[in-house]
Amino acid sequence: MNPAQNTLVNAMLDPDFYGHPVDRVELVETHISWVFLAGDFAYKLKKPVDFGFLDFSTLERRRHFCHEELRLNRRFAPQLYLEVVSIGGSADRPRLGDEPVLDYAVRMQRFPAEQQLDRMQAQGQLTADHLTRFASMLARVHQQALVAGQAQEFGSPEAIVEPILQNFAQLGPLLPPAMQSRLNDLEGWSRTAFSRLQDFMRQRKAEGFIREGHGDLHLGNMAWFNEEPLLFDCIEFNENLRWIDLVNEIAFLVMDLDDRGEERFGWLFLNRYLLETGDYPGMALLNFYRVYRAMVRAKVACLRLAQADLTAAERAEDQRLAQSYLDLAAGYTAVAHPLLIITHGLSGSGKTTFVNELAPYCGAICIHSDVERKRLHGLAATATSHSQVGGGIYNASAATATYQRLQELAESLLCAGFTTIVDATFIKRQARESMRLLAENRQIPMIILDFPMAEEKLEQRIERRIRQAGQISEATRGVLQYQLAHEEPLSPEELKGVIRVLPDTSVDSIAAQLVQATTGTAS
Q1: Which domains are seen in the chain, by residue range?
Q2: Phi and psi angles of residue 48, each rounded to the nearest 5 degrees, phi first
Q3: Is it true that the peptide bond before 100 is cis, omega within 30 degrees of 0?
Q4: How far is CA 496 from CA 34, 448, 514, in A?
Q5: Exposure string (b/e) for 425-442, b if CB count within 10 Å is 16 or more?
Q6: Beta bridge partners of 36
Q7: Angle (nearest 5°) at CA 367 between 361 and 368
Q8: pLDDT tens-digit map of 387-444
Q9: Residue 300 Rama label (left phi>0; alpha psi -120 to 50; beta)
Q10: Cα 79 from Cα 441, distance rounded (Å)
Q11: Which residues contact 155 (CB under 8 A, 6 or more apart)?
Q12: pLDDT value at position 522?
């Protein structure tokens, strides 16, 4: 830190520097910024550094990136990011808003540090509601985000693979010899996967899935503030790290949850995000990007290992972290043994609620007929179609199109190695047979989750659901009667692959049976 920087930092540590009540100032320092926690606000000052991928070396560049930070983060947390303020005056006595300008800072609303999601997770306070709310918010922001043009380099296979290969090149000299073999295996897997996926990556860009995202989506950059989900501290300094495939974005959070032992929350988040966006084909890229994100974290741990002033305990912890991330990445490369699971039951039998709770327990992705049917007709999941019983979006041709779409999405997920749950009534034998043939062609087991329930109970549930706002299903008593009149019971052959789910059946017990089916130990 040069004398001018030292003077500025010391000035901002003085409570009298700010034009609002401040009892004391806390300083949080990173390798690229100083953050001053002062009263109800935080002031982020960028260091005049140039790391190649990041350049804050001039006053003009710091001004530019302060405004970029404000613009970009307001997409996720407008209530936190307030304004860019100038710091001016004389070098020996800098003051907020004075002239001439010496530097710039981003002024933010403070929130309690214990409301960061990484700290909430460490304290056991993270809940399913937090993750589903974040998934919905992120899906909404992603769908509104700017799309990379075909003429831009962002999202091209070359732009995607470059930082991935750089990670491996940079990690090699930093890792101890014992970890080199695993690193080599991961690099080989990544190169092979990239070769297999690069045509799909080009397709993703053409279809508009390369967008201006957050770029650094993990629990440490997420907060629960005033009962609302907030993302903060997105990457403003490097466009290549921010204009990415949306699957790359969410892969970071899923990997972070996996690393913290919160795999179920990862699957919960993923399922809600996919329900909102419909981007099930993009899951072909999930493991590729989860490996990449784990390698980034391993590199960060190894870069700390290169510091000379580490204590023995710090060095041991960073070595443990590096090994942990390598092991996590290796898990994503393991050969998958997915299942195809379909539901069978009439409206009101509890299929959707049950499978949504089940999916995180068995690492599965759910596809819902009610949602995909409406998506095919340009309707939101909770929209009302005003269709007559057996008509509108529920007529015979619409039903055929819906089940065809469910099969296409299921096939894409199974090909990517993910256990897939298809949530639909499946009252027609032909629809079930098509799914059975898909499983047979993929040489994987298919399980039918059967939800039997008395007609009277189904009617009660449907009536209760109709009175609740924000429902996805449009089923009425009339729909139930239509289903009862047209259902085709499970055949004796189909019953061999059935697991019955009764109202008192626990999610844990079904998850255990599905694990047995996956490992081939089912009776």
Answers
A1: 3-110 (3.30.200), 117-332 (3.90.1200.10), 340-519 (3.40.50.300)
A2: -80, 70
A3: yes
A4: 64, 9, 14
A5: bbbbeebbebbbebbeee
A6: 27, 43
A7: 110
A8: 999 999 999 999 999 999 999 999 999 999 999 999 999 999 999 999 999 999 999 9
A9: alpha
A10: 52
A11: 148, 201, 204, 205, 209, 210, 243, 244, 245
A12: 38
418 burial level (CB within 10 Å; 0-12, 13-18, 19+)? buried
> Quick one: tokens of 85?
């303020």
Rounded Cα distance, 465 and 457, in Å: 12
CA pair distance 310, 296, nearest whole angstrom: 21
Alpha carbon distance 89, 83 (integer Å): 20
Q: Token digits for 188?
A: 């080989």
What single-letter amino acid sits at 168? F
Residues written for the chain:
523
Contact status, residue 417 vs residue 288, Cβ threshold 8 Å: no
Q: Which residues contact 169 (CB under 8 A, 6 or more apart)?
A: none
Residues 6 or more apart whose CB falls under 8 angstroms from that of 105 comprise: 36, 43, 44, 45, 66, 84, 85, 87
Which tokens sit at 227? 């009962």
Give the Å distances, CA to CA, from 333 to 197, 292, 385, 443, 494.
Answer: 14, 11, 43, 20, 33
The residue with tokens 């901002």 is 12
pTM: 0.93
Report, as ranges of residue numbers, the positions in the chain whose pLDDT lies below 70: 1, 519-523
